[in-house]
Amino acid sequence: MRALFFSVALLWVPLCLAQPADQQERAELRDFLDATINSAESFDDKYDAEVWLVDMSARLARYVKDPAYRLEILRQIHAASLKADLPPELVLSVIEVESHFDRFAVSRVGAQGMMQVMPFWKDEIGRPDDNLTYNLTNFSYGCRILQFYLQREDGDLHKALARYNGSVGRRTYSNKVYRAWDKHWRNGPLDWAD
């Protein structure tokens, strides 16, 4: 059954990953997806990796046009999220609200990268040379910061997100993240307690 699904999914991939220009590009994309799935160490099962990556890649296409880059980002987000014990779909929602998946985004207050991490964190942890526009670094910082706030707020997503955004006491930001999750990234329940 898995082999059949894998074969069907690989044939379907070019449709959901934005139409490749020709057969060679289609074959290269199929090979890249296969390699991405096989190197996705944060998944317990290659079937789960395939399903999640294909599904989320189709959802991410509105923001990231290059299918190979989309899969790379998704694999990195999934790994960083799980290391921080966060649902990857929550992290995708935060990134959508923070930067719309622009790795070079800089806010008016100086936050950088996809997860809009403030540069002072680099000095706080003694790594002043880290590049916050480098996705792996940005995802690692952003996920760990959100994990810290979620633990500090006893699992209350609204409060943790407000701390992440620097808007403690307000729900404007957390409501934006909730709407992004609900509209684009939801694939299971999250505890958005009121």
TrEMBL record:
Pfam families: SLT
InterPro entries the record matches: Lysozyme-like_dom_sf, Transglycosylase_SLT_dom_1
Tree of life domain: Bacteria
Alphabetical keyword list: Signal
UniProt domain Transglycosylase SLT: residue ranges: 77-171
Signal peptide segment: 1-18
Family classification: Belongs to the transglycosylase Slt family.
Annotated protein name in UniProt: Lytic transglycosylase domain-containing protein
Classification lineage: Bacteria, Pseudomonadati, Pseudomonadota, Gammaproteobacteria, Cellvibrionales
